[in-house]
Amino acid sequence: LLDAVRVASTAETRGKGVVVVTNGEINAARDVTKTNTYHLHTFRSRDLGLLGYADADNVVYYRAPTRRHTQDSEFDLAGVACLPSVDILYIHAGSRAGQAEAAVRDGAKGLVVAGTGAGSTGNLAKELTAIAGNGTALVVQSSRVGEGRVILNNNWHEPGMIVADNLSPHKSALLLALALTRSSDAQEIQRIFNQY
């Protein structure tokens, strides 16, 4: 807690957006994830690494976030009563067809696929492609792996779907819900995922 207060009151923290400070390490909120169920040293930024340290002698930064955040955000929730419904579909060997269609029938305006590998939609590919193609809901391909990017035009990219870059499924779901407050156009939402 003391380190968090020290980091928040350090001039160099200004402009870096939301940061997470634990165990003397400073991580960007966009990049950080919990990596262990109960160990103290659990918050890590796997792909990109930490921003800096909150050591006894000083708060030191080595890098800064480059994606849009906080004061540079285009989102304004002042008139939004609740975020649009977004569901996460977890792809695994036992995934059953019909899950995506059921989520849409239940009111989902967006679906995030927690895909295998580089975002594979597995045996839900056919129904997800249909949903993305007919505009019933927006579909974002992300990965459950924990590191790496999901990119356009690779072997696993499905037509009409948005790619999450290196955002986790749960962070992709939040960004999709925010994006849906501004637009329902897949290209515009892809732009948002490219910038945030």
Written overview of the protein:
With 196 residues, this protein is of the alpha/beta class. The chain is 23% helix and 19% strand. The strands form three sheets. A four-stranded antiparallel β-sheet has the order 1-2-5-6, covered by helices on one side. The protein has a four-stranded parallel β-sheet with strand order 7-8-9-10, with helices on both faces. A two-stranded antiparallel ribbon has the order 3-4. The two termini are 28 Å apart. The model has no long low-confidence stretch (mean pLDDT 96).
Which features does this protein show?
4-stranded parallel β-sheet, 10 strands, 4-stranded antiparallel β-sheet, alpha/beta, 5 helices, 196 residues, globular
Q: Total number of helical segments?
A: 5
Biggest sheet overview: 4 strands, antiparallel
Q: How many beta strands in the DSSP annotation? A: 10
User: Which runs of at least 5 residues are low in confidence (pLDDT < 50)?
Assistant: none
Oligomer: single chain
Strands of the widest sheet, in order across it, are: 1-2-5-6
Short summary:
With 196 residues, this protein is α/β, with parallel strands linked by helices. It has five helices and ten strands.
